[in-house]
Fold:
Amino acid sequence: MAPPPAQAQTTGEDTLMAARSAFLQRDRSRLAAARDTLMNQNHPLAAWADFWFMQSRLIEAGPTEVDQFLARWGDAYVADRLRNDWLLELGRRRDWKTFARVQPYFRMNDDRDVTCLGVLARQQLGVPMQGLGDLREQARQAWWAQKDADFGCDTMAQALFAARILTPADVWRKLRLSQDFAQPKAITQSVRLLGEPTAQAVARLMGNAQRFLMTDNAVRPESMSGNSSGVAISEAVGKKGQKAAKANKRKPARALVPPPPAVPADHVGPLNLLALLRWSSQDPEAAAAALVSPDAARRWHLTREDMAWAWASTGRSAAWRLMPQAITYFERALVPGELTEGSALWATTWHPDTLAWMTRAALRSATSGQPAHWLVVDTAIEAMSPEQKTDPTWVYWKARSLQAQAPAGAAGEPRRQQAREMLARIAQPTSFYGLLAMDDLGRVGAPPRPAKPSRDELQQAAAVPGLDRALRLYDLGLRSEGAREWNYTLSYGKPGGLSDRELMAAAEIACDREYWDRCINTSDRTKQEIDLYQRYPLAFRRDIQVAAKDVGLDPAFMFGLIRQESRFQISARSHVGASGLMQVMPATADWVARRLGMSDYHGGLITDRDTNLKLGAGYLKLVLDDFNGSAPMAAAAYNAGPGRPRKWRDGPRLEPAVWAENVPFNETRDYVKKVVTNAVIYGHVLHGKPLSIKTRLGPVIGPRTSSAPPDDLP
Structure:
């Protein structure tokens, strides 16, 4: 009898993919079998199968089992990631003793929930705090930094509020910060600490802040009888508001609808302030018209600090809309008659975003004919936290302010010298403000290119277990897992992280394997040895240059945009559907194909490399021409659509750096800076051009001229 045919040998990679499939399908028995196979083989990726298995049953696991997992995988990424998940689970179990034992080993320390739970664990155990600040201060800072509603920070806040460590004043500040940063879920979650009547009042003002402030029966303080509220009355919003309030009074009360519950008398002013912040975020002009009333503070029971915060938030909302009134609103927020450098009495308590927009509004004004507003730039920057002040953005503009306000001649030399020293601190060739500082200092030369990694350096990098695992994951198409493994190894693969030479060697390996995202991101990490040719690779050079030449586009600009859009990943796809190297949207691709006469184009070709480059280059050239060759506006149009930068250019004529800093959308502002920076450096890498960003930024940006052709872009 003939023997049966030999069974094909299953590889470790096949087993790993089977483990991942079982994890996604919640098939724990199949996952356990695959994990055991990989561990018996000592496969380099066995840790990932074990990680998926532990994740699948973490809520059932005990400390001993988790300890064994963490010991098994030592310093690997999966150990620290599971440590993160385990700390959250321990917080849910209120196992503070185990939490306190595990948390010090959490290397990434990148989870706000864990930070908050760590504060709570120390309070519950009576353990002294570590780091800056006492228990209350660390709790406040962690809670105030919470981005939105979550489990860990809410659990901490409830416990510490009940213990009277966090106070009602802390809660009101949390609510104001959350409103300023548009975090309604955090507001709803946090206000519960102040009681149900106040929570209901906040729900009403979040629904319609103007109505809350206009009507005289929005809130009934406990210390007042009847429907008298102590909140704003209709006089504060003019005749229209009075008519609306009177109309409300004439309406008969609806049957079976009880009046809103009474709130504590000391909550009335803070509730009105929160309503004003909400209103100003929606309609800053209307809010300002109400705030300007001489007796607004009395009617709304607001302190001077409350009024300052209300005006500052109104200014931030107006500045985000690029309204010229913004600077006036900010000036009203400052102490009258005391506008000198560092004089903002309350500004240090405002949201960092408010201070950033105060600076931007002052820059628009100061650089377009109102030089006195450089003083507001100084005031806003001086009010920033030490961390925010060291951001190169604000270092640069503080230096510019010093230069602008320096008297002529010898009297102004100390200020000019201080400005030069500040610019020198941030001058470097790979960032927007670093390049601007280099330009201002007259340093447009490139740094010397360091020696390429040696064979020994490359071999040592390839032997690092975390990098090896990451490359194997990339080879299997598990890019997300590979990127996390890679990044963790760069930061935590050894004490203090990898050296510049080790980073360059790791980047070179990724470049050679054409994993361009890892190549770029790794080379970007070096501090002293900066290889522009490695950081700014010329992937697909011939194809990109052909596509650029076909439409008359500078290839450096195209390279700069691709580096930011996709990191040269052909298969890149965004969450909104943009595809390919140039992240082209389907509707844009259809429109550009028609404009370029690509009669054979269909949607399936959008991910074809050459087609994607042709479509992207064509569109980039069209928007560049539409904005008269302005690189900042073209980049903004590519990211946010042409309609928005058309509106953003209205108003005063601005130098391009000021215009770019005032782009309202955070993502687009960052995008514009990085694309222009990339283009400057690619100009050097491709053609040896000087690293002058001001040349790339072009002339001043202002309203479209009457002689310009009509807009025809979608």
Summary: The chain is about 60% helix and 0% strand. Residues 1-9, 224-242, 339-343 have pLDDT under 50 and may be disordered. Residues 666-687 form the longest helix (22 residues). Residues 591 and 597 are 10 Å apart (CA to CA).
